[in-house]
Amino acid sequence: ASGTEKTIDLKADAGITMVDGALTQSTKGNIRYSAAGTLSVGSLITGGHVSLTAGTITDSGTDDTDVTATALRIETTVANGGAGTGLNHIETEVELLSAHVGSGGLFITEADGLQIGQTTALTVNRVNADGTFTGSTVVDMAQATLISFGAVVLETTTGGIETLATGAVIATGNVLIKSGGDLILGADLSSTAGNLSLDAGQDIFQSADLRTGGAGTTIELLAARGITMADGTSATTQAGAIDYTATGDVALSLLTSNSGTINVTAGSGDSVLGAITDNTALEAANLVSTGLVTLTAETGIGGADVSDIDTTISILQAGNRTGGSIVIQDSDGLVITGTGMQTFGGDGSIAVDVAAGDLTIGGPVTANGAGSVTLNADAGSLTQSAGQA
């Protein structure tokens, strides 16, 4: 369709198959494909929007771009429907994506940057038997969020990924969001029974909550630069592990697990920079768990006064490798265990204060150089296990 904003509409009561390399193209008009069965996509190109609705949606080829458009709306209409597969993703070059799919899951590889959010209503003109389209427009309604009753795998080759306020990601299965650039979370991301893995080629900016609901399901964030949690945001598991690892700084709001391990690393790999900081205005907990908490940084873990890392945890080990201090304020009883608490560079000090309950030293507590060690149990006992320095 070469006319200005002329639309293309394909509808089948069974399936639609585009052979690999087949092309449907409009200059700026919307493209709508709707099938009751399987829709196998070749190449759709437009300066407008694309809507794909089918029982399930597959890629007829392998590496070619399947959809090039301003916005892409995906909807599957059967319980086990999905878009793409783990072995053959739907390849896109779009700016905005929304999707509602069944247990088959959603598998997308985007060529550059991508936003997840509400796609506007898409209208096409369906031609009548008399050759006109008078009174024969078809509308796919506006669609927000990204919902999958299976897995979600969303990757960008080079650009960043941003979830807008209308772009919550809600899944039943495992979720992998991997960005070639920044990963900006502006809407909640959750899975009722799967694990969450977020991987950024640059920074992760978390301005919404992360949550898993299944027993033992985990949350993992990995950033090639830094991770910043906005004040008031959280990551929550029932009993699964939480891991935040960045080459640079990690700024914390709240990580909470009933009994899972929590690991925070600032300055991973060969980096000699990276601090773990408190990014909240109030003295509320940054870390909550009865499981083992491990904090590792290059240039500091917490700071003086309101900059300390606030915890409601049971077991802790922490190390600072290059410089800076370790400052921990715990609410109700703490055991220092394993590798203990140590600074390995500069004159980094160690300060631990337990507001209520006991402080038990079950691992080495050593400050490098001229650094000092201050251990306080404000309303409980301070106990050092035999043989510990």
| Major sheet details | 15 strands, parallel, barrel
Strand order of the largest sheet: 11-12-17-20-23-26-29-32-34-31-28-25-22-19-16
For the secondary structure, the number of strands is 42
Task: Give the terminus-to-terminus CA distance.
Answer: 78 Å
Return residue spans where pLDDT drops below 50 for at least 5 consecutive residues: none
Number of helices: 0
Strand content: over 45%
Structural class: mainly beta
The dominant shape is elongated
The helicity comes to under 10%
Task: Specify the oligomeric state.
Answer: single chain
Mean pLDDT: 95
Rg computed from alpha carbons, rounded to a whole number of angstroms: 26 Å
In brief:
With 389 residues, the protein is mainly β. 0% of the residues lie in helices and 51% in strands.
Q: What labels would you give this structure?
A:
single chain, 389 residues, 15-stranded parallel β-barrel
How would you describe the overall organization of this protein?
- The strands form 3 sheets. The protein has a 15-stranded parallel beta barrel. A 3-stranded parallel beta sheet has the order 2-5-8, with no helix packed on it.
- The chain has 389 residues and is mainly beta.
- The model has no long low-confidence stretch (mean pLDDT 95).
- The chain is elongated.
- It starts with 7 loop residues before the first strand and ends in a 5-residue tail after the last strand.
- 0% of the residues lie in helices and 51% in strands.
